[in-house]
Please model this.
Amino acid sequence: MVTEANIEKFSKQCKDIFEQLGRDMIGQKDVIEGTVIAMIAGGNVLLEGVPGVGKTRLVRSLGRVFNLPFSRIQFTPDLMPADVTGTNIIVKDENGNSSFDFQPGPIFSNIILADEINRATPKTQSALLEAMQEHTVTVMGVSRKLKEPFFVLATQNPIEQDGTYPLPEAQMDRFMLKLIVPNPGLEDLLQIVNMTQVTMAEVAEAACNGDDLLEMRKTANQIPVADEVMRYAMTLCAATHPDGECASEAAKKYVRLGASPRAGQALISTAKVKALMAGRFNVSYGDVNDLAYPVLRHRIKMNFEAIAERVSPDDVIKLIIEEVGKKLKVSAFTKAPRVSKEEIVEEEAGTEQEQAEPAEETSEKPRRGLFKKKSK
Model:
């Protein structure tokens, strides 16, 4: 049950986290916010950007701010799976008897920086799949549980494709968010250079610890989601499938494969965190729209027509949001109404959902069956 004390503590901790990250990072507010949202929601993040825009620095700063053990794995073509997960070695005791002893790899940490993940071979990339999904590592038939909280924050370079191995769809789907790290503007560039002339080291201090992070995740999970907002979010995910019953015109034209059910889970989990960060106690249509881009952009496979016309996944997501919003009559609601602390209702989940319905956003409930099945 979410209480007013939980909300106040959550807001204070988020403020401290962003304040400390701001000591190391200049600009990139959307990227920082998205990464923190994913970490609180318990997901992995893929950061994509050209060299030198602060991807690695951000991950190192997160380790300092959350006061969690941090491991960096530099992915290269000659990296082997055992270099990531660890391996069994033969050791001898004082009597000369030999036995196997497991030496854990760098993945046995709380925050893992998979630097330039697309430079390793698929064999090595696959070593992360079990850890990212089940939070376990299996070596020679023995499964070992990873410490909680556990996050994989991977970076990849969109250029220099020679000697790289694109991540398979199965692994891309295990990243909760894919964030595009842009080049800094002129003013941000000036501040970056001035700051790094003093010191290149991170100066951020711890704002919370692993237990606090798990408590924040527990608080966010209890945030209610109105039935209409839930249906809207799931419709967005279903609309990415060109052959589905909710297929959008944009998906039929540009998409070959749509998003998996993990997209719906990620969309709701991250939207709850974003609502709390904004000082609201219910998820809005605006939260869903904002997070649809990082949640869906790496989960939809574009077809040849999209490539030929240079239509990006973000362009398709924008078209889907507009189309679905128009049919469900919610396209105009991009911002969520603020809810005062006095309006928190500490009752059963059903009562919380009823309280959380955004009264200002819609005057009528969306009708079911607006999307007809694709005609043969």
In short: Residues 331-376 have pLDDT under 50 and may be disordered. The chain has two domains: 4-77+110-214, 223-356.
